[in-house]
Each structure stands twice: as C-alpha cells, then as structure tokens.
Amino acid sequence: MKKKKFEFKLKVNVWTLVIGASFVILFLPALLSLFETKGLGTKVETSQILNDIKEGKVDKVLIQNEKLLLTYKDGAAKIGTKEENQSFAELLSKASIDPSKVNYTVVDQSTTKIVWGVLGALLPILLMAGLFYFLFKAQTKGAQDIFSFGRSKAKLFAKGKQSTTFKDVAGVEDAKKELEEVVDFLKNPGKYSSIGARTPKGALLFGPAGVGKTLLARAVAGEAGVPFFSMAGSEFMEMLVGVGASRVRDLFAQAKAQAPSIIFIDEIDAIGRQRGRGLVGGHDEREQTLNQILVEMDGFTPNDNVFVIAATNRGDLLDPALLRPGRFDRRVVLDMPDKEGREAILKIHARGKKFGKRIDWGRVANRTVGFSGADLENMLNEAAILAARGGKKEIVMEDIEEAATKVKLGPAKKRLQSEMDRKITAYHEGGHAVVTHLLSQMDPVHRISIVARGMSLGHTLIPPAADRTHETKSRILQQIIAMLGGRAAEQVVFNEMTSGASNDIAQSTKLVRAMVVEWGMSDLGPINMGPDTGLGDFGQLEWYEQSQVSQAMQEKIDNEVKKIIDSCYKEAVEIVKKNRKTLDKIADALLEKETLDRDDFEKIVGEKSSKS
Questions:
Q1: What ranges in 195-338 are assigned the alpha helix state H?
Q2: Widest pairwise Cα distance in the chain
Q3: Going by C-beta distance under 8 Å and a sequence separation of 6 or more, which residues neighbour residue 291?
Q4: N or C: which end of the chain has fewer CB within 10 A?
Q5: pLDDT at residue 151, rounded to an integer
Q6: How far is CA 237 from the centre of its chain?
Q7: What is the pLDDT of residue 342?
C-alpha cells in the first residue's frame, strides 16, 4: 500500500512540473521584459533618444534586439525601441549622426530567440499529447470498473478478527445449541467424515427483525475461528444483466480459496424468492442470481468446508429449491425472547453502563414482554441518555421505565390541550384501566398516562404477566372488551363519541375478524374463510387471487363480526356504568398527576384478582 501511495504522489509531482514548465516557457520572456523595463527607468520615444544623442547627453547604449537601453551622463537610465529588422547604425545614419562617435554595444540574442521559438512551437503539441494520455487512462479505468461489477462486494472478517462469540448472544438458546454443531463441523470436519457423515451445507435463520440473526451468525464465525464473508442479498443485484450471478461465483470462489470459511447472506429473500411467480419472466436478473446460488451450494462441483448462513424474516417467500436438504440443511427459528432470555440480554447490554444498586432486572424483564434484543439494547441506551441529560451519575429504575415507554410508544410531547380535551383523555384512559382491572383474565394495569406520545394523546399499558403461546377465545373476547373500554367511558360520561377511539376500534375489529375468518372462533364454525395469502414477486397478493368466500358467506362473516363487537361493547358499557365512581377518582388523579403507576392505580381500585 505504501508503494502505491508513493507512486501516485510521484506522478502528481511530475505533471505539476510539466504544467509549471509550460507556463514558464510561455510567459517567462514577457515577465523578463517587464522586469527589465521596470528596472531600467522611464520609456522614451525614438526621436527623443536621437536628439539626446546629438546633444551628447547619452553616455552609452545597450542594444538587445529591438530594445534600446540608454545610460545618460547624469546617471539617468531610460529605455526605447527601434524597428525589429533595422540596425542601430542605420538608424543613426538616417538621423545624420556618425555611428563611430556613439558608444553602443549590440547583445547577440539570436540563439535564445531560436530556443524560445522552438519551445513555443512544441509546447502546444506536448499539452495536447498529455490531454489525450489522461483521457485514454480515464477510459481504460472506466472499462476496468465495468468488468469489476461482477466481483463480490462481500466484507471479509479474517480468521481471528471476529471477536463476537456465543457468550455475547442471549435469548436464543435453542438456536445456539443448533449452531454449536455447525461450529464443531468447521473445527473438526475429520471427525464426521471418518464415519461417513456429510458436512451440512448451510443454515437458514428465520425470525422477526431485531432478534439477533446477524449477531448469531457473527458468533458462529467467532467460535469457529474461520474467515467470515458477509454480504446483503440486495448487494448481488445490479443494473447490468448477469452481474448478480457473477458476484455469486466470485464470492464462493473467494470462500473456497480460504476454506474452511463461512458465507453470511443477510436478507436472502431479496434474491431467494420463489421463481416463476408474478409477471416477470424467466430471464429476470434476480432469478439468474438465485439459480447460481443453487448451483454453488449443491451442484456438480463439491462445495466442501464452505458453510453458508442466511437470514430472513420472510421465510414464506423463499424458493423451495433453496430450502431442500443439501442446500440449507438446517432451519433455525429465532423467536422473541422469553422472560429469562430478556433478563440475560439485559445483563449483556448493561456492560459498560453505570446502574444504581436497586435495579431489579427480573422486574424489567417482566415489563418488556414483546421486546426484541434490539429493542432492549435501544431501551438501555435511551435510559443512559436520560440519566446523563438529568445530570445523574447512575441509571436508576425510573430512567429504565421511561426509556421502555419511549421505545414502545415514542417520546413524550407537551401538546397544548384545552381542559375539555384533557378531561376526555383522562376518562378515556381511565375507562380502559377500569374495564381491564375488572376482567378476570386480563393482566394487571402497569401504567396510565394522559401525556401525549407519538400520535396518541394518552396510553394505558397492560404488559402480559407471562409469555403465552396460546390465546383462548374467552381471553381474546376480554381483550376486545378492554379495547372498547375507552369508547364506553366517553359514551357514559359525556354521552358523546370522539375520534380518539379510532385506533381502539380498528384493532378490536381486526382481532374479531381474525377470530371469525382465520381461527374459527364463531358460530360459523371452524372454517378458514380468508383468501390464500401467498405473496408474489412484488410482496402483494397475486393478481389472479380470488376470494374463497361467496357473497352470501361474506355477509354472514360481516354480521358475525358486528355481533361480537356489539356484545363486547355492551359489556364494556355495563362495567363502566357500575364503576362510575371509581372511574371519576381515576380521572381526577390523572388530571392532577398526568401519570399513574400500578401502585397508585391499585390504591384507588384495589389489588388485581389472582384468577388470571
């Protein structure tokens, strides 16, 4: 690298000298003439010079081509000119002056004049040659760049340079165990080949965004201690046809040269979607790239000791040929972390941060149900920022609580609201809280606030008390009743409806429709009446998809959805009416404090029943 830098600087200096010399050749005579003229005194006319010579005022004359440099007897210096092809003696003779009586000297500059003339003629040719040279080099470099499109753009993490290990990954213990075998394959391939076992070709990591797919792939490379090539699926694609397939070939060639090694392709769904779907033909650039990956992973040429890890959160879109054994042999599913996983993740991301002694990580893990690993890391970072902004030396529980709310709902906003708006919001959120508290299968209310966040004017947080795999019909119905508790409170207290319940209505309607159409939780029976949700090349329903439900059945679905919604809303109104005094107390407390935690809330309504 140092040698290249030196050569580059040297070329720049040479061309700087060439350009500088060209300017010197062009302008030096004029500059010399200017300085000579300026240094030799004032300029006089030829007739004045001849008169001064006749009167004997001039001591000597120096002749340089057409210039006359005069030195007077009184010490003055002047300059004049004559015609270029006329001799000074001839000029004197025409003025009736005897040349022999004048002290003059002729300086011969014919050689210098010839040299300047030759250089002046050659200089334009040299400059044109230099210009063409630069244009030729630029064109050659452009051609080389075009051919370099087919080269892989993967980032290489050399052996021993990947510091991430399984100790830095938490919350995905099942996936870690699955990939520990991969590490053993890469470290000890002979142990498996000696008994006839074939080394797996690849592992596909499924999971929602933020659960740690990329981090887990880096940990595999760090544990195995092998070169790690990382590339995103979109980086294979280019405007030129065939570039993606060429980059795949180059990537695998580099990996094979440094085998054993790992290739990591992030967001593989960008190039791995099912072929032959949608409106794009078989010559699609994406399909060519996918075909080349299929050949490289399991074609005629063996692909030993190169392990491919791919990650996606849209596994339903991938081509079946990519998922068959012999290509991605392992399919590792990463879910949102459970309570123990969240607690382990929090302790990993807490490294390097100063926390107070009263931090209860178990309580924080309970508070953050539904948070991914990325959400938890962001939450702790926001907590550190809040503590630093407040001038604290340590991060306390209140900072973590505020950061969790900020990550979930957005930052608090100080909107100017009228007293009536604040009152409506207080009763709306109070309605959610009261109804939720009195429903047997709902989790405890964690926080109520009328502080605006994001697009909402207030919020009622009800995080799940435990991680659930299944949801029962009775619990889903109670969730819908709790969602409609805000609208019910507006109806009972103000005998009015507001637009603030729009999101509650949308979410409850979506949940009821899923019960009827997808989950079979209605009087229509256990029938899936939704359309096939197979997605095409453009991430939308295929153009040929038709509804599987008749017009008469669609009407029954709509009636069933309305019946469930009406029943839930009626129950929410009844709960609010029976507990109007409690609702008034909660609303008054919210108008005074703006935010009520679980302890403050339960002081008014009592502790939550343990039936849930």
A1: 213-224, 243-257, 285-298, 320-323
A2: 138
A3: 245
A4: N
A5: 53
A6: 17
A7: 85
Q: Say what the pLDDT of residue 162 is.
A: 64
- Residue whose structure tokens are 């609702």: 583
| CA atoms of 342 and 336, how far apart (whole Å) | 9
pLDDT value of residue 159: 55
Q: Say how far apart CA 487 and CA 257 lie, in whole Å.
A: 66
Distances in Å between the Cα of 375 and the Cα atoms of 336, 379, 397, 404 are 11, 6, 17, 9
The label of the residue with tokens 């994001």 reads 454
Apex 325 CA angle, 320 and 330, nearest 5: 100
Residues 6 or more apart in contact with residue 381 via CB below 8 angstroms: none
Model pTM score: 0.63
Rounded to 10 degrees, the C-alpha dihedral 186/188/190/195 comes to -100
Spans of the chain below 50 pLDDT: 1-12, 34-39, 142-150, 278-283, 532-545, 611-612
Length of the chain: 612
Nearest to residue 176, comparing CAs of 158, 203, 201, 197?
Answer: 203
Separation of alpha carbons 385 and 406, rounded Å: 12
| Bridge partner list, 106 | 63
Q: pLDDT digits over 126-156, tens only? A: 777 777 776 666 655 544 444 444 455 555 6
Catalytic residue numbers, as ranges: 429
All residues at 6 or more sequence positions from 188 whose CB lies less than 8 Å from its CB, including other chains: none
**Pair of tokens at residue 194:** 């000696």
CA 502 distance to own-chain centroid: 33
